[in-house]
Amino acid sequence: MNIMASAPTLATAPTADLYDGIKRAFPQELFPWDDYFLRMAETDFLAGRADTPAVKSYFVRRAPFGGSYMLLGGITAALRLINELRFNTPEFADGLRRMNYTQKFIDHMTKRKGLFKIKVYAPPEGTPFFPNEPIISIEGPSLELRLADAIIISENNFASLSLTKWNRLVRVARPGGVMEFSRRRAQNQMKASLYGMLAGCVATSNAELGRYLQVPVRGTMGHEWMQSFASVREAFDTWLTHQPHLPVGLVDTVRCMEVDFPEWLDAVYRHRDAIKKANPALWGWRNDSGDLAYLSIEQYDRFFRHRLAGDPWFAERMRIFLTNELDEYAIASIISQISTESRAAGFNAEDLLRRIVWAAGTKPGVCEDEPAIGGVMKLMESDGKPCIKLALDADGRVGIKTSIPGFNLSALVRNKAGEAMGILLYPARRYNVTPEGKLFDSIKNRVVETLQMIHPDNESLTQELSDYTVTARQKVVFDGGLTKSWELYAPTIQSVQALVKKATDELPWWISRIEKPHSFPVSVTPDLFKLRQQMIRDNALQSVYPIF
């Protein structure tokens, strides 16, 4: 059944389930990768290495937008592709032939029955993560990891970028809300809107997204509506006659404060009974140009001197919608102006700010200040041996691209007071996290009493905690199929929004601020530090895990 070509029915009505909604909104790709991933997989097979066990990890080297962290987006979409991709179909075999793959390789792939036999370790959609943290790891046969690698990079890079950007706006705009309307300009319209909603936007203008997922879809009149009438009064009256349930007027077509705004308030007053009968949650007006801080303050004042404000229904539900090239920096500047100037004028700044809806499009939709990230997936272990990417300069100094070797997982570390102290990377073959929140050493068969956290490049930057708790960041969410851990999580639009809000609010303020954030420590265990330093000194691409 071609979901993309079919109109919604009761069976395909918008869903709250994120996996199901993504499945409906985005077609299952037959070759969801760049060709070189499949070429390496073919070479693995031809060299007799197809089933060599390996581990790869996804991480970023630097957080975007001058920030200190990112939000993980796209893991649901990646798992959907991994879970449902099939190699043993005529279409897959025909495609390989057209691309001149060997018949032996084609036969090998079709005999695999099309099912990935890998493990995926990952946290929930929307989790904050930090530079050099292996936030997603995959374990399994080398051939399959090549293909899963390609899917995870493709699905997580833009999604994490977009989710992070939109959430920056959402956090700055509070207590006001952010409306997403980037469809007209975003490079990927559906994904920009989807991850904007997951970031916490209150509504989207993307009607197609609302076809598949239960998201509020909203729109207002545009300038061309006003231009199609002889006067703004006639345009407003006609609109409210036919759309009393959508009483948001665009008030910057002629002269905002002299013509449009007073005409809009009077039009709403004339149609007040029809509007109240339609009972919309909000009503108000939209400013799309000019001095938005000044307009908001002055309009707030004039509204509360208008006869409409005498009706509690209109007084409580009034909102001011602001548009015009907004991003987190513009919003922060406008909020600062409103806070300062409205208080100086004797107005209630807090009440005004809670009434603003920031309708943003182009800048966050295209991630204008940083439209791509360097999210990578690197080989961390092959045939039981830790691997490293050496990126040393001419003088042998460690570069930013030098990876942290081995199959590692991560944990959030807190001190006795419950304060977040950083992220700790630990060898997954040696340690695990106990239910009590302690790191357990399986070689020494005991709990680690004093936790040592070492900067990957500088042993002098070491923290020691004797009273600590750790929280494991990843769970096995795929093991030849979606696991119980994933099914228990079962992400929805609402649950991801809630997780994003809770997780970012719990971050220390000094790493979550928009400008000049401090970095959050990402450290390694002492044995991992020694392994990495030894491999760097030896220029070793592979090593053995040391015996402790």
Question: What would you note in describing this structure?
Answer:
The protein contains 21 helices and 23 strands. The chain is α/β, with parallel strands linked by helices. The model is unreliable at 1-10 (pLDDT under 50). It has a six-stranded antiparallel β-sheet. Strands 7-6-11-10-9-8 form a six-stranded parallel β-sheet. Strands 21-14-15-23 form a four-stranded mixed β-sheet.
Question: How do the strands and helices of this protein lay out in sequence?
Answer:
Elements: H1 18-25, H2 35-46, E1 53-59, E2 70-71, H3 75-84, H4 90-98, H5 103-111, E3 119-122, E4 128-129, E5 136-141, H6 142-173, E6 177-180, H7 189-198, E7 203-204, H8 209-212, H9 223-227, H10 232-242, E8 248-250, H11 256-270, H12 272-278, E9 283-287, H13 292-303, H14 312-317, E10 318-322, H15 328-344, H16 349-354, E11 356-360, H17 362-365, E12 376-382, E13 385-386, E14 408-415, E15 420-427, E16 431-433, E17 439-441, E18 446-447, E19 451-455, E20 458-465, E21 468-472, E22 475-479, H18 484-489, H19 493-505, H20 509-512, E23 522-524, H21 526-538
Parallel strand pairs: 6-7, 6-11, 8-9, 9-10, 10-11, 15-23
Antiparallel strand pairs: 1-5, 1-12, 2-4, 3-5, 3-22, 12-13, 14-15, 14-21, 16-17, 17-18, 19-20
Helix pairs in contact: 2-6, 3-6, 4-5, 6-7, 6-15, 10-11, 13-15
